[in-house]
Write a structure and sequence with these properties.
Blueprint: H1 2-21, H2 23-32, H3 34-50, H4 60-70, H5 74-79, H6 87-98, H7 101-104, H8 108-130, H9 134-137, H10 142-153, H11 159-163, H12 171-182, H13 186-199, H14 204-217, H15 224-256, H16 267-282, E1 285-286, E2 290-291, H17 293-311, H18 319-329, H19 332-335, H20 346-365, H21 370-415, E3 419-424, H22 442-453, E4 458-463, H23 464-468
Parallel strand pairs: 3-4
Antiparallel strand pairs: 1-2
Helix pairs in contact: 2-3, 3-8, 3-10, 4-22, 6-13, 8-10, 8-12, 8-20, 10-20, 10-21, 12-13, 13-15, 14-15, 14-18, 14-20, 17-20, 17-21, 18-20
Length: about 475
Amino acid sequence: MYTLFIVIFAGIIIAVALVASMRLQFTHFVHRNPHVCAVIGAFAVYLVLTGPVHFTFMADDWRHLAAAEQFSDLYADRFSRWVPRVPVWSIFAWIIFYFHIFERSWAPMYLVYAAHASAVALIARWLLRELDDKQDILSTNAWITAFAIGVGALYPNVYEILYWPTCMPYAVGGLFVAAALYARTRIACVTFAALAFLTYETFLLPALGLMVLPVLLNRSPAEPRVRIRAAVQLTLSWLSAALVMLSVRGVAAMFLGNFYQKVNTNPSHVLAQAHASAKELFQIRFFGSGRNEIATWVMLVILFISSALLYRRTSWRWRPVILLVGCFLSTAVYWVLDYDAMRAIYGAQIMFSAVMVWLIVQASRAGVRPIVVSIGLSVLGVVFVMQSASIMRIKDHNAGVLAMREASLAKKIQACDSECVVQYEDLDSGLTQDWVLHPAYWTSYLEWLHQKYGRDKHVEFVHKSEASN
């Protein structure tokens, strides 16, 4: 593990040396492609953070893994039932588990992060372009823009998407949203938006906000009537995409049966979920370990200062507030869901990261010296990276615990005859602060081990507490 870390670190040193030797060419590239540089920089940081770390499967993964070992037609037996709700996700998830991709290598995780970082960069670029006054464009500091987008791409609350194979396919939805924003024809816009919605419902409201808000808030020379007409046209495109989503779901349900997702519209539940979504969006958190106070306050203070600087400018006064409120309201689908899951606000998290980038860049244009903005971004980047490093330590620890547990149980399974009883203790003992192996998934975990190490044997698993009785 540490050898890999040293290799990665040495690679970064070499890259820095090469950049220094080609400083002029690199500076020119940054000024022309700040968004590409941001993604590359964020990816490099992510590589250093995750390179030395061992990861493990979590929760639903165990059921998919057990099914992959048991069923000859995994898609029909396991993932086809998800088609009436999230067909795009079901295809990608089937590929991941049918071909045992993550059992062989976690390298595809980096493709997932690249997709996520690219979605943040493209949507931030969209906001900066669509909400810019013409006279402000030339005052943009490309280095600040690249730095801000890189930090936004490192926003650490999207850990369910990045480190959980079952949830990783949702990352493509962010790219579909970005493609819909940049589409030049209505048909393309509707197609990409529908693909995002068919990936996960979390993209429904963020896509609407990102389409409509820039048009309504942009103080361009166009008359308000023109802007309203454009907003209506974009809303119609969004509605068309939503209708396509519902039609695809309806047709799939006719052949595969309805997928029933529990909802709860009780006012007390809605208020509790709204409060939870606000915490999960505007606080830096990790499942089990709660809120990171330092990172949360650094982020909130930077957002407040940026918004206050823009409030002084009459033409921009309420835009920061409207955009941040829009991020919160875009979590509304989560409010009626009858379960708690960070991934259910992933679309809003991408939108929030892009809005955060927009705020910081606009604050730099409001007269704040680049060195001050750079210091603020550096502090924000450091606390984001520290939070991610904390998550990495937990992931690595849990992976080590489960590796030893798997080795122990595998030895027992392989040692037994064609028929035997294997005793086990609490499978979640030693695991810390993560949703890895809840008792609800113990049966799937044991069945996966059975099929993996003793497929032709009859193995009965008995908890030690039951065996003693």
